[in-house]
């Protein structure tokens, strides 16, 4: 049984239908990339999974249906979402942001050890603990956003354009950490990315979305190798 | 000079009450972006409940605590039952619901308790402290109680996980959901706390202005002025604004415009702030997205 | 107006003209007040219903109109009928002036500012430096107008209450015709456009600021005229008649009667005049408890008020008739 199964996902912003029936599945422990041009519906897909937009369709997480449920209830099932724009609480401190990530957890000691582990991934955050999150640099805020998501100890991590606005070196660092988190902590990752090359290097599987539909899917390695696909769909 | 000191200290006492009510208004505004027109009536209703408890034989402080708890429950119930369904309705519908709440609480109180004015006891001694001529023991006590309540609220928001969650919801409801915060219940909690704080304010002012269903009308106006002056989304600002308005009211009333027109001070402040500096002294300037 | 509607209005006016001769004097007085409130509610509706600017302080304009009439009659000896246009003019200016700064306030903030106006009005009226004119806490007593001489000469016997009723009816008819013309034409459409899509309205060339201030002025004028008429009918003005609850009762009137509706003003006026009469028997608090419950009920169940419900009913009946 796949960790996440999506069948016929439709989503609308008000009267405008943006997703026209998306099907895909994520296996536990995998890293999946969702690729596509601007406006194709990638971000909407992630938001639909979390119940942040009006959705129809069948979405199952660990076998249980989550479509139609409140965002906060979906999150409590173990799905952490790092939205585009990062969603940082800009007027709270770095530490407060991180602790909010663990808001729903009851295991105090484990939360503290998770905090320490986050600092090993992103030591810069430890230096900025008492600083107001809004004053952090773009890269640091991205690290904070990912860390906050990790503080949930999620089973599934949704990342929306994590490379956006980051210097290439930072992107590589971030993706390395993602690989480590996936391997060491068995966190499944669903990654929406415009930077197709980096995403395909990290992912096991990839889906390509165009105007609200899945047009291509397969193993990341194969898609990476396929010159025709790369040139016509991914632009490189 | 003596009289001036008396006006200032008296002003601080009533200012503390305006500060509490203004804080309640700000707490609700921060999480819901709504102005609770019924805040005064909620406080008044709670004060009457305290009166009933005391009249039934309960000691002052036990009645005080029980009233605070009951007020909290009232606030939660109102938010869940009356406000929740119209959260996303057009502004006019929301205002109408608030007004309905106001008049229902007002008339329910009149119905249950009649409109005859009642006295409300003060827990503080009748003799002024050290026999001073500047401020009564109740006024001093009211300032003290107000400061304790404000301190507790501050500690709650700054140092508890629930307080942190509420601050998060006030700033960014969407991100709050993404960390699993049940935003709906946070709103209810905000209303409950606001109602509780309002109840304390009511019980502190009632000995001074006497218990009457219409006692909070003018006070609510001062609280609005204070909240706007300090910044409708700034709790600290509301507190400073409250004390400032209290002192201003007394000083202007005694020396400049006469006691007759004191409410007009509030009116002037409200309109003035809304026109000149709508975000108040400590609030954030909001850019309205088109 | 359709032929059917014209007949309806004619019938209504005919009934209205006959009523004072078949009911008691007290009932006639109550009906006069219904007309007064209808004018006030139409005023509030122009601002809040059609133009979307929420006012919780219209009682203040009613008070200004009432006091204008009282001062003119009692202190300056003016005839009662002259006070009506005078009160209207005063309130038109007052409303327009209040409307100018109000341009900067939206939704809840405007409601807040007008609420403050409504709450502080009685204290302003009691201000002792103005006592010479306003009569302070005691207020001013006004003489009851007598039916004009020409009626007696024409052989029509009428007591003062009945005359006052017909006077109010005439004023109300004029105000309603004026309002109807304003609202169904370009002005009405502009007001509604500003209410629903104010950015688009501005883009289409409507001068939002001008229309919104004018709406305030006209709305205040209507309410001021109603205030003057009301003062003459009640023969008395005093500060405590004009508390915030007056402003709130107007709100009840337009919500129950029907927002953005002319007939709604009449339904609302009937409601706010007669409900307290009946409810007062139960308890002093009952009228407002009922008002509050009706407010909630109408917001949830009948957002277009009685007028909206009547419209739907008529549509359904006419559809059946057509079959």
Which helices and strands occur, and which strands form pairs?
The complex is a heterotrimer of chains A (236), B (290) and C (323).
Chain A: E1 4-13, E2 16-26, E3 31-35, H1 42-49, E4 54-61, E5 64-65, H2 71-76, E6 79-82, H3 94-101, H4 108-121, H5 123-127, H6 138-150, E7 156-160, H7 168-185, E8 188-193, H8 196-202, E9 205-210, E10 213-219, H9 220-225, H10 227-234
Parallel strand pairs in A: 3-8, 3-9, 6-7, 7-8
Antiparallel strand pairs in A: 1-2, 1-4, 4-5, 9-10
Chain B: H1 2-32, H2 39-55, H3 60-83, H4 91-113, H5 137-159, H6 161-171, H7 173-178, H8 183-209, H9 216-230, H10 235-255, H11 262-276
Chain C: H1 3-22, H2 25-50, H3 58-75, H4 80-102, H5 107-126, H6 131-134, E1 140-141, H7 149-153, H8 160-184, H9 186-196, H10 198-203, H11 208-234, E2 236-237, H12 244-257, H13 262-279, H14 286-301, H15 305-322
Antiparallel strand pairs in C: 1-2
Helix pairs in contact in C: 1-8, 2-8, 2-11, 2-12, 2-13, 3-4, 3-5, 3-11, 4-11, 5-12, 8-11, 9-11, 12-13, 12-14, 12-15, 13-14, 13-15
Could you walk me through the main structural features you see in this protein, from its secondary elements to its overall organization?
The complex is a heterotrimer of chains A (236), B (290) and C (323). With 236 residues, chain A is an alpha/beta fold. Chain A contains ten helices and ten strands. Helices cover 39% and strands 27% of the residues of chain A. In chain A, the strands form two sheets. A six-stranded mixed sheet of chain A has the order 6-7-8-3-9-10, with helices on both faces. In chain A, strands 2-1-4-5 form a four-stranded antiparallel sheet, with helices on one face. Chain B is mainly alpha-helical. Chain B has eleven helices and no strands. Chain B has helices at residues 2-32, 39-55, 60-83, 91-113, 137-159, 161-171, 173-178, 183-209, 216-230, 235-255, 262-276. In chain B, α1 crosses α9. Chain B is globular. The longest helix of chain C is centred in the last third of the chain and has 27 residues, at 208-234. Chain C is mainly alpha-helical. The chains are: A alpha/beta (236), B mainly alpha (290), C mainly alpha (323). Chains in contact: A-B, B-C. Chains A and B meet through α2 and α3 of A and α6 and α7 of B.
